[in-house]
Design goal:
With 321 residues, the protein is of the alpha/beta class. It is built from 15 helices and seven strands.
Length: 321
């Protein structure tokens, strides 16, 4: 599978912030800067679903207090799976605006006055990439799942959203690939390569639930070589044809199949540990000491016996004196 450079579409008036985004985009994204909401909407229509959108969420009119742009809300209604990041000054009195942006569907917020370095902004962009899939996955996972298993799955969702592979998953958790494999086995999860393949299918299904997305654009976004590769992967993992899957609800159907496999793997892990416990050899009991050894312990040496006899005669003599 091949990774595809994500488009980064920017609508913002802060020149310094835009220059920082331009430098980041040259390294990891295909950047595009637009000048208005209509142009942004057009660019989003022409972009694959992997596109990241960074906007100033406010309207700025001379002499009036800034308010959230109604054009942003309309765009999020029109493109519900779009990954939109709001870049603004998080100052006193804007807590209600932040809640509203979350309700509208904004995935992440960049605080301009605090996150003013390339590394801080890059970290926010990376976080936003995996957020939609992580949120859907979090709602689907059973409450009985262990903390280690949940951590591994959330990391895998983020890595796949960024176009990463097995070594990237190990690196994100600061583990070696061998340790990562052992982690997955101890958490009763499928092998890491299987987990990443599942996350790629789930990411594709999340995007397929948007009727405005074509199968080909979703395939390229998720790193598949062609739409036929995506169709084969979906059918292999879910047992359902892609066209039927979209009718049933792609993510809901695929996540249900994923949970079934997780439960099967968990049961296999329990059975394996039970069998290992039964087959484990019991420790041999400590050997009983030989009778001669016990006698040797209680027997007195000739010298000790003589001293004992002498002491006895001495006590008897003093008693008769």
């Amino acid at each position: 599978m091949q990774a595809v450079a994500r488009p980064l579409i920017v609508l913002h008036s802060d020149a310094v912030f835009k220059e920082r985004l331009r430098k980041i985009g040259n390294q990891r994204f295909k950047s595009q800067f637009v000048n208005g909401w209509d142009e942004l909407r057009t660019s989003l229509k022409e972009s694959p679903p992997a596109a990241l959108v960074v906007v100033d969420p406010y309207t700025h009119s001379y002499g009036t207090e800034a308010e959230l742009a109604p054009e942003l809300r309309s765009m999020l209604w029109e493109f519900p799976t779009a990954t939109v990041i709001a870049a603004l000054e998080v100052r006193k009195g804007r807590s209600r605006d932040l809640r509203t942006l979350g309700e509208w569907g904004v995935k992440e917020v960049i605080a301009l006055e605090e996150e003013d370095t390339l590394e801080a902004i890059s970290r926010r962009l990376r976080s936003a990439q995996g957020r939609p899939l992580q949120s859907l996955l979090e709602r689907s996972l059973p409450a009985t799942l262990s903390g280690r298993a949940r951590t591994l799955l959330m990391a895998a969702a983020e890595v796949v959203a960024e176009g990463g592979h097995g070594r990237d998953l190990a690196a994100s958790l600061r583990l070696s690939e061998r340790t990562l494999l052992r982690w997955a086995e101890q958490a009763d999860l499928p092998p890491p390569r299987r987990i990443l393949a599942w996350m790629r299918v789930l990411l594709a299904c999340e995007l397929l639930d948007d009727p405005g997305q074509t199968v080909l654009s979703v395939a390229y976004t998720c790193g598949y070589a062609s739409d036929s590769s995506l169709r084969r992967a979906v059918q292999e993992f879910t047992g359902v044809l892609l066209t039927e899957l979209r009718k049933q609800g792609a993510f809901a159907t695929a996540s249900e199949k994923f949970l079934v496999e997780l439960e099967e793997t968990r049961e296999q892990g329990r059975a394996r540990r039970k069998a290992e416990k039964v087959e484990a050899p019991k420790p041999a009991p400590a050997p009983e000491p030989a009778p001669r050894a016990r006698a040797a312990k209680t027997a007195k040496t000739p010298k000790a016996a003589a001293e004992g006899a002498g002491n006895g005669r001495g006590r008897k003599k003093s008693a008769t004196a």
